[in-house]
């Protein structure tokens, strides 16, 4: 295969969320990201420089029918990164099917209106670290498969199944415990935590929406220290998710 002007234009268009969803594909860039994801998704194209091809023959030989040698200049034009790598892949978007009932047996993270792609990527990475295999994103969340998000996951997106949809509808009828972080919640360190259920993390500025708040049956708080001291107004949602997941998993180890 060889790079054509139309194919280059196609890859460049995938910086648009609309185009990614219309074409059912997404882009991954960088050696670590590509090596971690290439066996997890259906590969359409593998663009790489001659130098990268020589160094990673175990990959390029397996996917020789999808390999397109390119120059660094070509990658610079196709890349969404300020400093392009030597490799870029285009994958088919995965089509995961699961419902909130999975939370009867698993710990699930749900994001309610998280807007920043970097935050979504960080949360996917944290979920992967703490053994969370399912995530639910509301329709107004940042796209989990944008180039920035995929890069921020550091390969974790290959191990966490992500469902996007109407969050109130998905959570309706859920029998598992639903946890949410609130400033008026009970300290997470004093709350009884289940090894299964759904953890809802809200928007960076406004928190969890009213519709979802009414569905939360366990309101928790990450307390600042020392109590009642002057401190930051809130935690970054990615940082907060990591702290919450760490406490849930700590209970399994120490209880």
Description of the structure:
It is a single chain. With 255 residues, the protein is an alpha/beta fold. It folds into 2 domains: 88 residues, Ribosomal protein L30/S12 (60s Ribosomal Protein L30, Chain: A, 2-Layer Sandwich); 155 residues, Alpha/beta knot (3-Layer(aba) Sandwich), CATH 3.40.1280.10. Helices cover 35% and strands 22% of the residues. The strands form 2 sheets. Strands 7-6-5-9-8-10 form a 6-stranded parallel β-sheet. It has a 4-stranded mixed β-sheet with strand order 1-4-2-3. Strand 6, helix 8 and strand 7 form a beta-alpha-beta unit. Helix 7 packs parallel to helix 8 and helix 7 runs parallel beside helix 11. The mean pLDDT is 93.
CATH superfamily of the largest domain: SPOUT methyltransferase, trefoil knot domain
Residue stretches low in confidence (pLDDT < 50, at least 5 long) are: none
The domain count comes to 2
Which strand order do you get reading across the main beta sheet? 7-6-5-9-8-10
CATH class of the largest domain: Alpha Beta
* CATH T-level fold name of the largest domain: Alpha/beta knot
């Amino acid at each position: 295969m060889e790079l054509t002007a139309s194919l280059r234009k196609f890859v460049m268009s995938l910086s648009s969320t609309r185009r990614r969803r219309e074409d059912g594909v997404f882009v991954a860039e960088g050696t670590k990201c590509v090596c971690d994801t290439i066996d997890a998704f259906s590969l359409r194209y593998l663009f790489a420089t001659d130098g990268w091809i020589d160094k990673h023959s175990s990959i390029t030989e397996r996917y020789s029918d999808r390999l397109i040698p390119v120059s660094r200049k070509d990658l610079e034009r196709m890349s969404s990164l300020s400093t392009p790598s030597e490799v870029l892949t285009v994958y088919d978007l995965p089509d995961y099917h699961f419902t909130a009932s999975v939370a009867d047996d698993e710990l699930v993270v749900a994001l309610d209106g998280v807007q920043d792609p970097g935050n979504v990527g960080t949360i996917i990475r944290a979920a992967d670290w703490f053994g969370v295999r399912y995530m639910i994103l509301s329709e107004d969340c940042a796209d989990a498969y944008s180039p920035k998000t995929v890069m921020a996951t550091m390969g974790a997106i290959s191990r966490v199944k992500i469902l996007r949809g109407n969050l109130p509808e998905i959570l309706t009828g859920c029998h598992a415990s639903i946890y949410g972080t609130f400033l008026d919640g009970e300290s997470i360190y004093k709350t009884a935590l289940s090894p299964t259920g759904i953890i809802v993390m809200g928007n960076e500025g406004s928190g969890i929406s009213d519709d979802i708040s009414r569905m939360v049956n366990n309101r928790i708080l990450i307390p600042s220290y020392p109590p009642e001291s002057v401190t930051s107004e809130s935690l970054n949602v990615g940082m907060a998710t990591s702290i919450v997941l760490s406490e849930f998993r700590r209970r399994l180890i120490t209880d």
